[in-house]
Amino acid sequence: MGKELLSVGLLFGGESAEHEVSIVSARAIAKHLDSSAFRAVPIGVARNGVWVVLGDPFARLANGEMPERGEYPFLPLEKGAEQTSAPDVIFNVIHGAGGEDGQIQGYLEMLKIPCTGAGRLCQGAAMDKWMAKRVWESEGLPVTPYLGITEDRWKLNPQGFIDQCLTLGTPVFVKPANSGSSIGIEKVTLAEDLKSAVDNAFRYDRRVLVEKGLDVREIEVAVLGGADPIVSMPGEVLVAGEFYDFADKYLDGKSQTQIPADLQDDMAQSIRNMALQAFLSLDGYGLARVDFFVERNTNHIYLNEINTIPGFTSISMFPKLIEAAGVPYKDQLTTLIGLAVDRQRQTAGKQVGFKSGSQWFR
Predict the structure, then answer these.
(1) Is pLDDT above 60 for 244?
(2) Looking at the structure, do residues 208 and 304 belong to the same domain, yes or no?
């Protein structure tokens, strides 16, 4: 009689703009998961937020299905699947809003189901590029010059914010504070185009960031682990277009990656140290890809952003970087599942309740 396999719920899809990327990542993980230790249980989240577990969730999401939600108001499961058993651990592959911003982490914490990756605090702060920069600034880490604004403040005085942004010079990059895969980002070279770019970014989020445009190399570092994580050597994205946008990442395939990046040893080590500090300062756990800019004419290093649920597709930098650090793809998945179980055990051991010993509340 063989050992009982740990059931791993591959949670993918979601309502965010990165729905399609998530499907591809989850398929890759399902293919490489160690079948001698784990049983993959695909759980697709349709574009309407309903969790799809019946039949083939991969095919159903790829076909754009949006099933009816079940009859239990506190469960996101599709109708007819309300009695589905929960897996032993969730492998979260939902990129972007809903999966990478603390929402799903909080829900699974209430259900006491282990989940890969960092907790609510890290996910929420890391997903919000504006908030992450503010944390890193407090740590003394160098970030790209930027300005941020909420939608409410923008409506009160759009011209005032535009005037502020022009002090950054041109070009600038306008981006939703909470988004990924370069969705909603525009490069603006003319002042008269700034308002429409900010308006467009507000289609995706109520918080928007405007960053100074620099002539840079794009450098990325992968981090895997807990208190003493593996920090990869830096890799470089050799961008084919104006910047590394969605089409360049996933559709055209013109950009290339170089691992390790062609950097002086001291600069590579400095970037690795910054990546670790950026990860730990946000209470990082499990995994992250930390992205940097190196200005071409000065070699100045800027911390750009952190991705706490990076892509796991065949072209994704995170698994490539960690493989180059000596950890094969399959072992990366096993490590992340083990870390999730360990963190849940640690959390379960903490005291939560309190009794005063009096009857005052009655």
Answers:
(1) no
(2) no
